[in-house]
Each structure stands twice: as structure tokens, then as C-alpha cells.
Design goal:
The chain is of the alpha/beta class and 191 residues long. The chain has one domain: Glutaredoxin (3-Layer(aba) Sandwich), CATH 3.40.30. 42% of the residues lie in helices and 16% in strands. It has a six-stranded mixed β-sheet with strand order 1-4-3-2-5-6, with helices on both faces. It is globular and about 35 Å long.
């Protein structure tokens, strides 16, 4: 699935517009798993998923080619991809949901992040504060965002086990339940 942008930086403009209307201005107060708790819960994951967990909260280079290669290694498992940026308030709002649900479902479903239209150092600082059980790929030129059909940040894309896009959710999840329902509907049922 591909989307085209009218101008470079389109994701930034859309996300800033969403943030300015108050969408996701407060982060939910949820307890998220510590790295040690996540590693314990995800022990004995299948090898392709265990490789994701070993790279938890890392910001990976390689951009679109590396992202495509990683998706190929995950064939046979559903995958949930979250496009985010450190400057995006709606992204910060929903990140605790991904932190928690990636641990809950991570032994059956792959999770990946895409840090789009962002600088590496603020993104790394974001991940140090909000540890995830999965890595994120750098996407400074929004090539991955274009590939996955992200028209705004955040965007979440659900791939089935064969690597086909099952669903694209544009914008912020308002609560963990909504994200969990989409995981159950578009990812878990095919695992």
C-alpha cells in the first residue's frame, strides 16, 4: 500500500495540526513493563520475534531497505507497525498502549516502530524514557511512512502472517482497549 504526499514533511504538518487541537495532549498514567519484566514475559519467543525483543527500544538505521528486510524475516507471524515521532503529542499519548500490548502479545505477534520525520537524538531520548520491547526504524525522509500508507502520525499498520496489509489505522488510539481490539481483529486471529 502506498500513499503520496503533496510536499516533504507532510506527516509533520498533519501531526502538528492534530496536536494543536488538543488531541492526545495528556499522556495516560499507565504502569508499563520494565525491561526486565518484558524480557521475562517474552522468553522462549519464536526466533524471529526473539530477535525483535533483543533490540527492544533501539533506533535502527537502514531506513526503507532495512524495514523491508525485517518484514520479510517476520513472514509467518502477524506484525503491528506503529509510525511515531518524538515531537508528536498523539504518539506520546498512545505509546504506553504499545509498550504494554507488545509484551502481552509479543510471543505470537511482531511489533515494530517507525520513527518518521524526526531527528535521531530526540527519538533515542524518547525511547530511553518509554522503553519498548521492540525496535524502531529511522525514517527521516518518510519513505517507510509512504510505503505503509501513513498519512498522519501516529499511524498503525497491521500485517497478516503472509506479509499483506490487513488494516491501516490513521491517527491516535484513544485508549488501550481500542488498540487491543484491533490487534485481536487484524493480527491475533491469524496467528
Amino acid at each position: 500500500m502506498r500513499a503520496s504526499f503533496a510536499a516533504p514533511g507532510a506527516l509533520m504538518l498533519v501531526a502538528l495540526a492534530l496536536a494543536s487541537v488538543g488531541c492526545g495532549s495528556q499522556e495516560p498514567e499507565l504502569r508499563t513493563p520494565t525491561p526486565a519484566e518484558a524480557r521475562a514475559a517474552l522468553a522462549r519467543s519464536p526466533p524471529p520475534l526473539a530477535a525483535l525483543h533483543r533490540q527492544g527500544a533501539e533506533l535502527l538505521d537502514g531506513e526503507l531497505p532495512a524495514f523491508r528486510a525485517r518484514l520479510a524475516t517476520l513472514r509467518g507471524h502477524p506484525v503491528v507497525v506503529n509510525a511515531w515521532a518524538s515531537w508528536c503529542r498523539p504518539c506520546r499519548y498512545e505509546m504506553p498502549f504499545f509498550q504494554r500490548l507488545a509484551v502481552r502479545y509479543g510471543r505470537r505477534i511482531g511489533f515494530l516502530g517507525v520513527n518518521s520525520a524526526d531527528d535521531d537524538e530526540p527519538a533515542r531520548a524518547f525511547l530511553r524514557k518509554r522503553w519498548t520491547a521492540f525496535p524502531s526504524y529511522t525514517d527521516p525522509d518518510e519513505e517507510i511512512a509512504d510505503e505503509i500508507g501513513a498519512r498522519a502520525l501516529p499511524t498503525t499498520v497491521f500485517y497478516d502472517a503472509s506479509g499483506e496489509v490487513a488494516f491501516v489505522h490513521q491517527g491516535q488510539y484513544r485508549d488501550e482497549r481500542d488498540l487491543r481490539e484491533d490487534i485481536e481483529r487484524y493480527a491475533r486471529r491469524v496467528s
